[in-house]
C-alpha cells in the first residue's frame, strides 16, 4: 500500500477546506459534523464490513456525538478518525456497547466495548463460544487451574445452598472461550488487577469506565486474554492499534486503514491553505443534509 504523499491527511483536509465565498456563515456543531460524515461516506464504505449498513453507521455515529456536548467540542479530525476506526472494525458506537467515542480534552478517543471484543473474537471462525461474567462476593465461585481446569459459578440470586439478598462487592471477572478444535481457555482477573488496567487508561475517569463499569471489567478480562485466543492476525492488529486510541487523522498510525480509493483521492488533490472552520461547500452540504433528513 502506497504512502500518503507529503504527509497529506484526509480528515485534516476535510476540516481545513478553503472558504471560497469570503462570507461568514453561522452553523451548529451538529450540522457541521453531519456534513463531514456525509462527505466521508465513500471512504467509510470502502472499509466497512459487509454486515454493517453505511447509513445506519452514519446515523448512530451522529447520534452518539450529538448527545455528548463535550464531543461536539472535539477537533473534527479526531472525531472523523474515531468514526473511521469504528467502521474499519465493523462496530457501532453507542448504547449497544460495541464501542465508544469518548472526549479527552479536545480530542475524541475510540474505545472498544465488551460486546465489541466478543463480536471480533467470534468473527475469527475458530471460536465456538466465548463469554465473560462478573463475580460478586456473595456468588458461589470456584476456579481450578492446572491439568484439569474447571470453573463453577453460581450467581448470588440463584444460590440454593445459602440465601443472599444482595450481591456484595464486585470480586472480579472471568472469560471462558471454547475453541472449535475442542480446546478451551479460562481467564480470571480479580478487581485489583482490573483497577490497575483502568488506572493506565486515559479514559479512566470518563466514559464507560464511569457509566458502564461492569461492562468494562468484562471487556478488560477479554482484552488481556486476547493473545491466547485463536484470532486472525488482521483482527488482532486492528484491536491493538485502535483500542483506547486518539488519532488526529484517519490514517494515523495504521496504514491498513487507508484504502486505495483514499490514496488516489489524496494524490490527485492540490494542497490547500488553512481557512476558517466552516466553508460554503460544507454549509451547502449541511443544508442538503437537513432537508433530506439523512441523519434524523
Describe the structure concisely for a colleague.
It contains 13 helices and 7 strands. The chain has helices spanning 10-15, 29-39, 41-47, 54-66, 69-72, 76-89, 114-122, 191-200, 208-211, 213-224, 233-242, 260-267, 280-292; strands spanning 99-104, 107-112, 127-136, 140-144, 150-154, 170-179, 184-190.
Structural features, described:
The structure is a single chain. The protein is an alpha+beta fold and 296 residues long. It has 13 helices and seven strands. The chain has helices spanning 10-15, 29-39, 41-47, 54-66, 69-72, 76-89, 114-122, 191-200, 208-211, 213-224, 233-242, 260-267, 280-292; strands spanning 99-104, 107-112, 127-136, 140-144, 150-154, 170-179, 184-190. The chain has a three-stranded antiparallel β-sheet with strand order 3-6-7. A two-stranded antiparallel ribbon has the order 1-2. A hairpin with a 2-residue loop joins strand 1 and strand 2 (107-112). The longest helix is centred in the first third of the chain and has 14 residues, at 76-89. Residues 1-9, 17-24 and 251-292 have low confidence and may be disordered.
The biggest beta sheet is recorded as:
3 strands, antiparallel
What's the arrangement of strands in the largest beta sheet?
3-6-7
Residue runs with pLDDT of under 50 for 5 or more positions: 1-9, 17-24, 251-292
Number of strands: 7
Secondary structure: helix percent: 40-55%
What structural category arises from helix and sheet content?
A: alpha+beta
Please state the overall shape, judged from the principal axes of the Cα atoms: globular
SS field, number of helical segments: 13
Distance from first to last alpha carbon: 37 Å
| String of helices and strands | HHHHHHEEHEEEEEHHHHHH
User: What is the strand content?
Assistant: 15-25%
Q: What is Rg?
A: 22 Å
Amino acid at each position: 500500500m502506497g504512502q500518503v504523499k507529503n504527509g497529506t491527511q484526509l480528515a485534516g483536509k476535510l476540516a481545513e477546506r478553503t472558504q471560497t465565498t469570503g462570507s461568514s456563515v453561522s452553523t451548529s456543531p451538529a450540522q457541521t459534523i453531519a456534513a463531514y460524515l456525509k462527505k466521508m461516506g465513500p471512504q467509510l464504505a470502502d472499509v466497512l464490513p459487509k454486515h454493517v449498513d453505511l447509513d445506519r453507521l452514519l446515523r448512530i455515529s451522529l447520534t452518539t456525538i450529538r448527545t455528548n456536548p463535550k464531543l461536539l467540542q472535539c477537533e473534527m479530525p479526531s472525531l472523523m478518525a474515531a468514526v473511521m476506526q469504528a467502521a474499519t472494525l465493523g462496530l457501532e458506537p453507542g448504547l449497544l456497547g460495541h464501542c465508544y467515542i469518548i472526549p479527552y480534552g479536545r480530542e475524541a478517543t475510540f474505545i472498544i466495548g465488551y460486546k465489541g471484543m466478543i463480536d471480533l473474537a467470534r468473527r475469527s471462525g475458530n471460536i465456538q463460544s466465548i463469554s465473560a461474567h462478573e463475580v460478586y462476593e456473595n456468588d458461589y465461585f470456584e476456579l481450578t487451574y492446572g491439568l484439569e481446569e474447571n470453573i463453577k459459578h453460581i450467581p448470588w440470586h440463584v444460590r440454593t445452598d445459602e440465601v443472599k439478598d444482595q450481591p456484595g462487592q464486585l470480586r472480579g471477572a472471568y472469560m471462558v472461550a471454547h475453541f472449535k478444535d475442542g480446546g478451551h481457555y479460562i481467564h480470571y482477573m480479580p478487581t485489583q488487577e482490573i483497577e490497575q488496567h483502568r488506572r493506565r487508561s486515559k479514559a479512566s475517569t470518563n466514559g464507560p469506565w464511569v457509566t458502564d463499569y461492569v461492562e468494562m471489567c468484562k471487556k478488560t478480562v477479554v482484552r488481556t486474554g486476547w493473545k491466547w485466543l485463536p484470532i486472525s492476525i488482521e483482527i488482532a492488529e486492528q484491536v491493538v492499534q485502535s483500542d483506547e486510541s486518539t488519532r488526529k487523522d484517519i490514517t494515523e498510525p495504521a496504514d491498513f486503514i487507508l484504502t486505495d480509493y483514499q490514496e488516489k483521492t489524496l494524490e490527485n488533490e492540490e494542497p490547500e491553505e488553512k481557512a476558517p472552520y466552516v466553508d460554503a461547500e460544507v454549509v451547502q452540504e449541511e443544508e442538503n443534509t437537513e432537508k433530506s433528513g439523512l441523519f434524523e
